[in-house]
Recover the amino acids of this structure.
């Protein structure tokens, strides 16, 4: 017998055009594919660059590895911060078109064998993926029907993982000795893939998905265009109702005036802003980026280069499989529950990883590392993008994502330095990540509120009540879910 949630999902599917919605989801999240690919691509290329393109010395390799990996999140911080005001002014779809053109330019610079142009190209592409990390979740939140927001939101992380997987997989095309023909230029193919992906998304938004998001159009008093945009997503009998919902939300926000940066530190938003920023900073502080940036180096201890690359591919493949499976978890458990248990289990794997490094047990390291990436992509990975977009307005999402990139840049810049044998070493370095996750557990338990199954209005109400009681999560979520059933029964 079907569960209540399955019945609701089945009912909801009859109100919208599934193929169109998922086409918009997949197309928009190509920006998150770029996110994973560009962050990961140097994982295997740096060793090749060291000997065959830039002829780095060992000392230069460490320096440029740090610079080239850290310049991306630094550019991404700027992109994420600027995305909120930009997409609010010029629109979600238009912003995607512009950012795809910019990423083509930045990627072209990385194909020229000049280290200074390479750094500039990495900074530009970093700006673009930072912009996308704010833009794509906002776009997704506004074009997906309520019943599939969680599942569709998981596509953000699926695309990130897919991008990372291909970035590592393509390393098998790098030559060992024969540098003639295509194989000798394979590094350019690897660095040039974002040009192809950006072009594909650009074409789809120019020729196929030609409408702005309904919410953006309603909020800018373009009712007729909003109806056209809704007709692309919802079946005819549901358009008026969806339009009414958006207009009511706009009227409610207009009464409270538009959200400004100053408003984000007001009592209404500051708790949400803190949670959003904390979660975004927590993501890289789990150590996930240390694994993504340097997994090949980590796995190379006591192994051949090919074995290290193979293990890196398995590592990323596991992340893809776990993310694909996360949708079922998201449908069955609350946001807070997933975040807390994700933190607990990830911390355990980090502690084991740290201990194994201390005892030089390199062969056994693959087990906690593989378990880490599975747990991460079942919990934190997909949940962050869903939860932050649910609780914050667009400019708030932009600020929160900056903290993600701040943490990412710190890990990219500092991890190779503090994890070297001349400094702390890898064992204590992963111990630092574990300690931060232990601290984070108390913050998650105290500050995160459950938003599973709630409409935007209900989430606002949840965070703006003057008094919080110990039974908030149990009592209020239950009452809101009753309202949610009533809400969905009309669709």
């Amino acid at each position: 017998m079907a569960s209540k949630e399955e019945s609701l999902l089945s009912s909801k599917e009859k109100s919208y055009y599934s193929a169109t919605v998922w086409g918009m989801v997949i197309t928009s999240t190509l920006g998150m594919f770029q996110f994973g690919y560009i962050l990961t691509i140097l994982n295997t290329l740096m060793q090749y660059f060291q000997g065959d393109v830039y002829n780095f010395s060992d000392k230069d390799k460490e320096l440029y590895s740090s610079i080239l990996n850290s310049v991306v999140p630094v550019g991404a911080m700027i992109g994420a911060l600027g995305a909120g005001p930009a997409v609010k002014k010029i629109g979600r779809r238009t912003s995607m078109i512009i950012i795809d053109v910019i990423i083509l330019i930045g990627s072209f610079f990385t194909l020229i064998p000049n280290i200074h142009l390479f750094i500039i190209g990495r900074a530009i592409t970093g700006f673009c993926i930072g912009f996308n990390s704010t833009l794509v979740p906002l776009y997704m939140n506004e074009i997906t029907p309520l019943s599939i927001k969680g599942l569709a939101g998981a596509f953000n992380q699926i695309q990130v993982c897919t991008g990372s997987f291909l970035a590592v997989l393509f390393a098998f095309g790098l030559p060992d000795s024969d540098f003639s023909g295509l194989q000798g230029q394979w590094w350019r193919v690897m660095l040039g893939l974002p040009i192809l992906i950006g072009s594909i998304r650009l074409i789809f938004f120019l020729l196929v998905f030609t409408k702005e998001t309904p919410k953006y159009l309603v909020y800018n008093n373009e009712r007729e265009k909003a109806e056209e945009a809704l007709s692309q997503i919802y079946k005819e009998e549901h358009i008026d109702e969806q339009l009414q919902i958006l207009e009511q939300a706009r009227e409610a926000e207009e009464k409270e005036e538009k959200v400004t940066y100053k408003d984000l530190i007001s009592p209404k938003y500051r708790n949400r802003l803190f949670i959003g920023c904390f979660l975004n900073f927590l993501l890289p502080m789990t150590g996930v980026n240390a694994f993504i940036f340097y997994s090949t180096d980590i796995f190379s201890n006591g192994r051949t280069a090919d074995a290290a690359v193979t293990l890196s591919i398995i590592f990323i493949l596991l992340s893809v499989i776990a993310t694909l499976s996360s949708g079922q978890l998201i449908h069955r458990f609350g946001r807070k529950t997933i975040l807390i248990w994700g933190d607990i289990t990830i911390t355990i794997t980090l502690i084991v990883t740290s201990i194994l490094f201390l005892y030089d047990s390199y062969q056994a390291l693959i087990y906690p590392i593989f378990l880490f990436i599975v747990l991460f992509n079942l919990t934190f990975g997909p949940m962050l993008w869903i939860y932050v977009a649910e609780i914050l307005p667009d400019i708030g999402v932009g600020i929160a994502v900056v903290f993600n990139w701040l943490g990412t840049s710190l890990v990219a810049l500092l991890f190779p330095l503090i994890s070297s044998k001349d400094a702390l070493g890898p064992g204590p370095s992963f111990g630092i990540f574990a300690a931060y996750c232990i601290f984070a557990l108390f913050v998650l338990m105290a500050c995160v509120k459950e938003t599973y199954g709630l409409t935007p209005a209900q989430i606002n109400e949840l965070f703006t009540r003057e008094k919080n009681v110990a039974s908030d999560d149990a009592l209020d979520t239950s009452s809101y879910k009753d309202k949610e059933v009533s809400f969905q029964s009309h669709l």
Observations:
- The radius of gyration is 23 Å.
